[in-house]
Amino acid sequence: MPPSSTPAAPQPELPPQRLRVLLNAGAGSASAARGEPLSDVLASAFSAHGIAADIRAVTPESIALEAGNACREALAGRLDAVIAAGGDGTIGAIAGALADTGVPMGIIPLGTFNNFAKDVGLPRELGEAVEVIARGHVTAVDAAEVNGRVFVNNSSIGVYPFLVIDRERRRRRGLWKWVAMLFAAARAARYLPMRRLHIKAGNTVEDHRSPCLFVGNNQYNLTGFDLGRRHDLTSGTLSLHIARPRSAVSLAWLALRCMLGLFEAERDLRTLIVKELVISSRKRRLLVAFDGEVERINTPLRYRTRPAALNVFCPARTDAEPAPAGEETTVSTGDTERFLLSPRTISRILRSR
Question: Helix-strand-coil percent breakdown of the chain, rounded to 5?
């Protein structure tokens, strides 16, 4: 559905009564139902709040169609909201159908990482996530897209799409996810894909040769215990990060320094904060990852932000609530920013040993 001319407005805080729950039964936390069918667990949780939930199992092949059908039913007044029960891939696919329509989206985080759910402040426990939906508080947050394909977390080119493909190939052979990822990472280190890319973002035009380019929906923290988290999903921006390392060893060293809080922005990455950008390549098609899924997409790749495109059920925050305390300190030395772990974080590390 094409986006409307104005961002979707948050709906009144009324408890939803008629829900369509699109359940990815193969999501990472589907085993949390302790032997009871997950659909029954969800139905009981919603019923406890007096909510009628139409729960439908979906596959990666059917989710876009089911989400589109549910969105049309909501726009026709037959549903109050559409619920994504799964991981980031499931959420991203459903967000693609709901973006800029005004239809509220609920989230039951059942994936391995649940990055989007964490960043909007949702609880991980199933019953608590259902309670958030039942309270009916909706907040408008941003989405992003590449060549019309919506994503809620990030998109990347280079080594990560190859890691995902190789990991899933090994998982189909019976390996556990983390073991499969280790083997995939070892293979990527031997055959590190380098991409020659032409970047145009506003008045900035640059050529890069890099093993990894990352586009985030809003700005990501890149160091310490908050590595990979976003504290704002409403800035209406994209964060573009291009890795400067040219070898597998230097790329691995960059990742380690990020985790240790020794990241140097100017030295390690080329970073731009933009609203849209175009990435061109000599290749007609590139492997592109978004929200943990991978597709081969025609170039050029056109990225843009979709401000306030999604109305998401999330916990209400009062003005009196303090903002989350930062876990890192930024020290500016000339043109270089060095990120250091705060004393609070160091103390927490020592206590955990």
Answer: 30, 35, 35
